[in-house]
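Appendix B, Record 12. Input sequence as logged:
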Amino acid sequence: MDILFNPDKNRMTNMQLCRLYMDEFVKSAERKWMMDGDAYYRVDNPEIMNRKKYRYRENEATGEIEKIIDNAKPNNKRAHGFMYILVEDKVNYLLSKPYTLTCEESEEFLEQVQTTLGESFQSKRLMRLGVSASNGGISWLHPYIDEAGQFKTMIVRPEEAIPLWTDNDHEEMSGFIWFYNLDVIEGQEQKTVTKVEYWTADGVAYYVSDSEGDGWDLRLDAERYLDAVTEDGEFQEHFLVGGLPESWGKVPFVPFKNNDYELPDLKFIKTLIDGYDKGRSDVANMLDELSSIVYALKGYGGNDLGEFMRDLNYFRAISLDEDGGAEALSTPIDITAAKEDFEALKKDIYDFGQGVDKNSDRLGNSPSGIALKFIYSGLDLKCNRLENAFKAGMGELFWFVCRYLELTGAGSYPDCKIDVTFNRDIAINESQAITDCAASKGIISDETIVKNHPWTEDATEELTRLNAQREAEKAELSDMFPEGGEE
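Logged structural output:
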């Protein structure tokens, strides 16, 4: 859903505005893709998991043929975790290794940013943002200052976020609506309410609702407002600094996009996954049900076909009249054709999903570096989009860190820029890489060789160890052959 918000032309109250956008968003195709992306990642594939088997019967009262659910039919629901594998491979490939931050203008600013974000930002935030953006097309990071005055961040699920964009490129926001369900206790009763937060560059208003959908009954959240307020007084400052109210001066929600079009990865392969799930489930159903065999009956002595199937299943025998007979007409399953279709679908899923099928014959036992680059080319292209979008998101995040340092008196760095390098977990032929490193000795620096050696986990630490080892070897040689040694 594309929302271009012009506050100068808005004549609604803040609550009316929130209700309008929430009503539109919860019904939108955009939000459905977000919900489906998360479901397929969790292998709760809705198309197959919600599938029902039906049969038809004649309505005795009307004589019309009606469709009813048939619970007696086998209904295998084989959901396959293609999305989980593709998203996990992508996120781990790009974001699992520690990123590198550089700042040419100020080493002090770089250290301040790293300290403020903390060591756990990579593992607890960045990779989760990668998964959320891949599933929803976009994910959100909310920077805030806690009661202790510390800089913190929180991930906001895309299906709970409504950005109020002011441009078609989705780079500037005038506001942000964040709504989420919360279980609360009221008296002796537990119920679910919807909390709504309307954020602008200068403040935030808090609302709550007891209902969902058309006609959200928004009211001021009494937990946030101790005193009665008018609409003009609904907005509070973002946080306190030294006991005084302050605001960011910018809408404090940072977008981390999956690609330029904010499309989820599921968009490109959903029908293929649904086809694979359905085909595998249908084959399982055919193998399960005895109705895959059609019986031609002659002179059957029972009352109805239901009795015939019960006798056959229980006694493994049937009662026939004189000169009667029963012939089984089998309905063969073309396993070869089904298998070929499954393999073709699987290949399409990895091709159009730009992933790597690790069971593919193309990988072989020990593929060369060139072969690996070709096999991983689709994943590289997909990660290029995510990397560019995440670099932009990190740049926005650094702005809030810089603002936090300024507000807390830790320093002002208006002209400093931090560059982010995402170090990909590249698949390589290890033996070949070690040979190439050894052959490069004397051609390129030892530092470059160490950084590209497949056994290196921390290049700086490894170089320190290497230098210490060389110094120890020199000292040992000096002891063995001292200068001007004894005659």
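The chain has a mean pLDDT of 84.
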